[in-house]
Design goal:
This protein has 95 residues and is an all-alpha fold. It has helices at residues 7-33, 38-72. The protein has two helices and no strands. It is elongated, with a radius of gyration of 20 Å. The mean pLDDT is 84.
Length: 95
């Protein structure tokens, strides 16, 4: 089982997903929702973008990222914040 991508990879994948969805929704619905007040346009935009990104795009891109890493044979870097990844020293080392 491969380790989860780093927080930096997840942030980049999330940002990319949000950016692409906002662009797509603006392109497709921009002229239709343009006459609406700003708060209502924002509501419509977020009602479409957030669920799509959270439930469809990010999971799909994370799976694709994982497949790509497996195919390339790259090993994930250890997460220094993960206690399970802590390196234990042999007894007497570092004294």
């Amino acid at each position: 089982m491969s380790a989860a991508p780093s927080v930096h990879h997840r942030a980049m994948i999330t940002w990319l997903s949000v950016y692409l969805m906002i662009m797509a929704v603006q392109l497709l619905l921009g002229p239709v929702i343009a006459p609406l007040p700003l708060a209502l346009r924002t509501l419509v935009l977020t009602l479409i973008v957030v669920p799509t990104v959270v439930y469809a795009l990010v999971p799909s891109l994370l799976r694709a990222h994982s497949r790509l890493r497996r195919q390339r044979g790259t090993r994930p870097e250890p997460n220094p914040c993960d206690p399970a990844a802590a390196v234990t020293r042999p007894e007497g080392a570092g004294r």
